[in-house]
């Protein structure tokens, strides 16, 4: 059985884990010393060799992304850290930043050295005020200790709280002071990103994984995980479980194993459906308990690893209600730039509301799938695609439950016994 393997989360249980003192006590800022003594290209090669893949959802190889930054171009280069974290169910960057903000700052110093950047911007979701305060304090402490300001500056930018601003190009527009809407690519950020300069955009967890790789080497990182998904990662377990929270394990662990290690589904209940990577990834059911939770394993089973946000729903949950709630979120967060997403998500909500209330007909299910087909792959960015995932997958696995709403003239679930879906919003 795969075991939990705390690397990023190794000292989270210590009361002062977020302080500079505690970080240094555990060897903090030794990795950046080591990296700064290395040739920047050697740092990029090390990260490439480690097999680290972006933890923001798409799993793009981090070292390869850094390698795309043109060299000798006499332009400023930028590192942008994506700390927007707004996907329903995704809650790993927030605890990471609360427990250990210095590991991100150290990762920024190393990444800036590798891509020859002098400035790193951390774009953080504005609603998480406690995290903003914590990261601000850590940055101030790093400046006071002379860790920052000697070649690398870090700026914390507070977003207004829009899911779309997690999409990397919308994030760049927002950072520049414009309304956050995705940009047409190419050019990609590596060529023309922030202020039209070569820019790397990486997730908090991706950059925070770098110091340990520099300290322990690529082989150490390669030794954990599966063939193409290396290292450890933070799985966020939420919903109808005994112990929700972060569980750091090598990539490839299964949900069955995580549930066994964490206390399982709440007593007296059984798993009905779950998301492997947040609400924009197709649902799984109890048939998928043994799917390896790595990029390839989840894709082969018809979903996506995404942000590894494991939202667990037991048999008391109405799947139609849960999917409606998620769809309302995507409709609300659609930035309006493209028609398929702006109009499509609005119509998805109208039809789902009717279906949930038992007002539609079976033909509405076909209409819903047709709408999804017109959004998927036709939207300007992946927000639209993500909005269709819970709908198409829930109809695939729970068509009978949709029909039951129609024959019952409303939701067949007992509203008292059912805990339904709370806390879905950003
Ligand atoms: C609608 C939308 C929201 C996103 N939100 C986030 C987010 O909050 N955090 C994040 O790191 N990536 C988010 N992404 C993915 C980013 O566009 C980008 O792929 C990621 O920041 C790259 O970092 P990585 O290579 O380290 O994973 C989002 C993408 C989309 C389409």
Describe it:
One of its GO terms (molecular function) is FMN binding. Its cofactor is [4Fe-4S] cluster; FMN. Pfam families: Complex1_51K, NADH_4Fe-4S, SLBB. The structure is a single chain. With 426 residues, the chain is an alpha/beta fold. It folds into 3 domains: 20-222, Rossmann fold (3-Layer(aba) Sandwich), CATH 3.40.50.11540; 232-314, Roll (Ubiquitin-like (UB roll)); 319-408, NADH-ubiquinone oxidoreductase 51kDa subunit, iron-sulphur binding domain (de novo design (two linked rop proteins), Up-down Bundle). 43% of the residues lie in helices and 12% in strands. The protein is built from 18 helices and 9 strands. The strands form 2 sheets. It has a 5-stranded mixed beta sheet, with helices on one face. A 4-stranded parallel beta sheet has the order 3-2-1-4, sandwiched between helices. The longest helix is centred in the C-terminal third of the chain and has 27 residues, at 382-408. The two termini are 34 Å apart. The chain binds flavin mononucleotide.
């Amino acid at each position: 059985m795969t075991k939990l393997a705390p690397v990023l989360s190794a000292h989270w249980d210590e009361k002062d884990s977020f302080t500079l003192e505690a970080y240094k006590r555990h060897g903090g800022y030794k990795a950046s010393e080591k990296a700064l003594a290395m040739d920047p290209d050697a740092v990029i090669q090390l990260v490439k060799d480690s097999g680290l893949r972006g933890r923001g959802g798409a799993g793009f190889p981090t070292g390869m992304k850094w390698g795309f930054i043109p060299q000798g171009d006499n332009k400023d280069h930028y590192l942008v850290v994506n700390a927007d974290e707004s996907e329903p169910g995704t809650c790993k960057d927030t605890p990471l930043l609360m427990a250990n903000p210095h590991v991100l700052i150290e990762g920024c110093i190393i990444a800036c050295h590798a891509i020859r950047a002098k400035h790193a911007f951390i774009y953080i979701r504005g609603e998480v005020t406690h995290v903003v305060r914590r990261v601000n304090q850590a940055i101030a402490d790093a400046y006071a200790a002379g860790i920052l300001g000697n070649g690398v500056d870090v700026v914390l930018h507070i977003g207004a709280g829009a899911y779309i601003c997690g999409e990397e190009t919308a994030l760049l527009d927002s950072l520049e002071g414009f309304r956050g809407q995705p940009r047409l690519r190419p050019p990609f950020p590596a060529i023309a990103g922030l202020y039209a300069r070569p820019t790397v955009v990486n997730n908090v967890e991706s950059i925070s994984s770098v110091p340990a790789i520099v300290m322990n080497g690529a082989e150490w990182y390669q030794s954990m995980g599966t063939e193409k998904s290396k290292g450890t990662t933070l799985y966020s377990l939420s919903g109808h479980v005994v112990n929700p929270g972060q569980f750091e394990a090598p990539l490839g662990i299964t949900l069955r194993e995580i549930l066994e290690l964490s206390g399982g589904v709440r007593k007296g209940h059984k798993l009905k459906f779950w998301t492997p990577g947040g609400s924009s990834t197709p649902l799984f059911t109890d048939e998928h308990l043994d799917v390896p939770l790595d990029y390839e394993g989840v894709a082969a089973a018809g979903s996506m690893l995404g942000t590894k946000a494991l939202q667990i729903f037991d048999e008391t949950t109405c799947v139609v209600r849960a999917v409606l709630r998620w769809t309302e979120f995507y409709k609300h967060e659609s930035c309006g730039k493209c028609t398929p997403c702006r109009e499509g998500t609005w119509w998805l909500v109208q039809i789902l509301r009717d279906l949930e209330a038992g007002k539609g007909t079976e033909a509405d299910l076909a209409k819903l799938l047709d709408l999804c087909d017109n959004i998927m792959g036709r939207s300007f960015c992946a927000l639209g695609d993500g909005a269709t995932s819970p709908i198409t997958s829930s109809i695939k696995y729970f068509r009978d439950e949709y029909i039951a709403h129609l024959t019952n003239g409303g939701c067949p679930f007992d509203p008292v016994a059912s805990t339904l879906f709370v806390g879905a919003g950003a």
